[in-house]
Structures
1.
Amino acid sequence: MSVLVKEPEAIMQSVQGFSEDTVRAHSAARNEPAWMLEFRLDAWRQFETMPWPSANDEAWRRTRLTGFDIANFKPLAVSSGTVEKAELSRLLQEEINEMDSAASMVFEDSSLRYSVFHAKLSECGVIFADLQSAVREHPDLVQKYFMTKAVKPGLNKFTALHAALWDTGTFVYVPAKARVTLPLQVILNQVSDGVGGYHHTLVVTEEGAEVTVVDDLLGAKDGMQASVVELVIGNSSVVRYMNLQDFDHSAWNFLTGRAVLGRDADLRWIQVSWGSRLTKAFLDVDLQGTGGHAELLGIYFPIGHQHIDHQTLQIHRAPHCFSDLLFNGALKDKSRSVYMGVIQVFPGAQKTDAYQRNGNLILDATARADSIPGLEIQADDVRCTHAATAAQVEEEYVFYLMARGLSRAQAERMIVQGFFQAVLDRVPVESVVHKLERVIERKIGG
């Protein structure tokens, strides 16, 4: 095991607002190649021409951006150098130690702070690098896959902003037949208040490869995070991905993620939404090759006035594919959740087998859950079903547990934990399950 202590390129100390000059200065400070600057500038021009989401947009009708003003954020954070593990905050050290991993990377604000990597991974041809380094060291791979195969810059207003100003990021490349048995762990702590962050995850697997990647997102007090996740999954390869979002409850969080699956590819995506003031997440799985298998699992637990919105799309383009979605959420206080999901089956995608289920456990009468599942079927030999539920905790269950010595709070916590267990039971990586169990215990206990 070796620790990489590579000093990143310095980022400009200050910028004045969001503008093309900001984009140019950001790229110049990182000594980026000309192609990346042109990519950023093209994305910025798209951002400028696109309208902000409004209540007239179906995707945003139940999630208003009331109180959001991009001018309230500093566009970028100041960068700093790498450190040894012992110099990281206690919080970050605990996050690293919470899960067994093959390699770890820690970002704070816009810079890589710490990285540890098993030499055996390099011997197998596996690349696990911060995206800025990958732009310089693996330009052909990055240019081929970065926002070209899965998420395009012009997909929405926030992806265009992200493409223009992306700062931190992870590039994972697993060659054919290579297997990474332990997870690759990425931690982002957005420590500066009132700053915009733009974290990018790009995972590419070749035929027959296998990998697990975990993104752990923290901080962002009074700030914004506009992140993108791209999973490009080769034929017969297996990818396990978890996005654990636990931002400060004052943060605005916008996530766009898409997985593109080849023939006989296998994906399991676990989405955990704990934090933020408001989260709007677009999560797509795109089955492009015959025999693909995708599972999209989610848990969320908004409290206070949190607003958590997941919008999913299960796209079936090829025949004999399977997709399954299970999102379970518990809601307290005056929080609100929105789930909108569509199973989309293209002509010719016969023998599609697709499921979609969203369950909501309402812990207070003032909480609200909206669930809108849907189907768009253009093939005639398919099996597609969807379901949505919203219910309060049964008093009978609470009474049963209280009769055995538990307090009401303890009884409710146990019921919520059991509700989330239906998702945990489908997570195939033991170290990821253990991490999820601990974060659920902290959340429910809090």
2.
Amino acid sequence: MDVPFSWQVAKLLVSVGVVLGLSLVAERASPRVAGLLSGYPLGTAIALFFIGLEISPAFAAEGAVHTLAGFSATLALTGGYWLCGRRDGVVGMLRGSLGGIGAWLIVALLLTRFDFNRLEGSLVTLVAIAGFLWLYRHIPDSRAARRGGFSWAALGSRALLAAAIIFLITGLAHAIPAAWAGVLAAFPVTMFPFLIILHLSHGAAPVATVIKHYPAGLGSLLCYALTVSLTYTNLGLALGTAAGFVAATLWLLAWTRIQTWRLRKRSLETPRSEDRPSPHTMAKTADSPNNPSP
């Protein structure tokens, strides 16, 4: 099928806009927030929508079932990047990228050998999420220090990289089975270029923070892929995509509320330093004539 030029332009504009927006969020908010939003269905939504538009909604729905398991390959990418990209600068970015892509390829190729249903695909990624949350539990949170903002040249080049990945995934979908297309759609189209931007601009520490919080955000991606796998055929692309975003947003809001409640509870359980008597105060109290020794 020949893809209309207007669809290609729309694909380019949406891909570039999403990467730029995510980068600005990390600059103005925090890598923790950006890590959660990196798990929001951005690149996957773009890929599945255009696969459905260019081929068929039924093909995209079938692929979305395998996308559910494909997110575990995305987690492998973050693990490979974190392990290999701990140095600042270009060297750290290149090592992290190679390690991440290598880990993704190994797990993705393994996943394509299985015929998953919705439950099995979801369980595979849920187990992976739990494992990587445990693995990343000791990574310290680090805020991206302001250095006059991101370079727009770097932003543009990485945004174009995200667009190129989208074009590659949707192009390959015309020649491969739906299961393989679904696993490809799980590739972190927007998050991976964003890690490169953040690494070059602010170093390895904020990148590690984004990676630490990324598994928590994957819950929204699971909700999205599961929803569109059920709705694309019956509701069509537009309504199915809208339903997917509603499900993903509700999950992200619920997770954020839970995290806020846990932090508040933890702060209430931890005594404030000013409420604790200092050793000097305790010594004065012990020596006071109103408090004689036994």
3.
Amino acid sequence: MTTHRLGVIMNGVTGRMGLNQHLIRSIVAIRDSGGVLLGNGDRMMPDPILVGRDAGKIEGLAKRFNVTRWTTDLDAALRDERDTIFFDAATTQARPSLLTKAINAGKHVYCEKPIATNLDEAVDVLRLAAAKGVKHGTVQDKLFLPGLKKLAFLRDSGFFGRILSVRGEFGYWVFEGDWQEAQRPSWNYRSEDGGGIILDMVCHWRYVLDNLFGDVESVSCFGTTDIPDRWDEKGRKYKATADDSAYATFKLKGGVIAHINMSWVTRVYRDDLVTFQVDGVNGSAVAGLSDCVIQARQATPRPVWNPDEKRTHDFYADWQKLPENTTYDNGFKEQWEMFIRHVCEDAPYKYTLLEGAKGVQLAECALQSWRERRWVDVAPIGV
């Protein structure tokens, strides 16, 4: 067995997702566990270089996690032939130009979603990557959650029978920033900076629905800006111009109807920050980030609606928790390992920039639906 070095340029790791999920729980975790095992028994050891505008922050992160290389000069990093992968987790608006620069430098590219704020830019980057022959990928992290993996297992086992509907609830209260610090960056609430929950979350729903329940064929969506004034990272009051909650219904191939509520202005009274209920002819399931409960047709109770009597039946007790028959790794780390194998040994990989472009497309359709107050069909993407 031989261990090989793999140079990875990491841009935007001072942000919440870039730092926690991609640097700490993915690349550093892969490095500390001995690298990514390839099919021939060799291992690929990631050697990251951290890139950012704030030298103090980047240097501090490098020292904290024993990363030997960091820089504020992205162009110089892209010129270094020792590094073959470029990763970006910075702002959505800047992503297309950064990916374009990296692809033109001959780097394989992997990035957070959304891959752009509009479909035209997303497709341009996709076409460039194809023309240059580089490998490319987009983060599709929700598919790797234990809860959603359990839904996929139930689907594949035939548990649901014919699936009828999917209902999703996502969200939590993001503080305005005046008397409590906000948990999300202020640009998320400015449409001119690429913010908005529809652009951010509908990209997720595209790959979740496509991969688990059927390709999305059309969408009806309504968004709102419920909190008009917020305070930024420096305590300055600003006008929120982007949507902070939305309500979307999707028609899927095969007849499944999916409805998902998404909000940064809701208080959690459910089992998890996101839950999906899947109803089928033969059974139903409710999954969160980790757990999943099921109710088969044969175990379904016979409730009687009587508003004049207090309900005494415990409906939660009628559900069975799916057993933990396997262990689950961090989903971001798992997808990183898949992409590294794709780059290094041409292993199969489906979560490409095309899938990222599909997410941007559905977000655009949802915004159009809101704007025009109508259903909008989702057409195939021409590349």
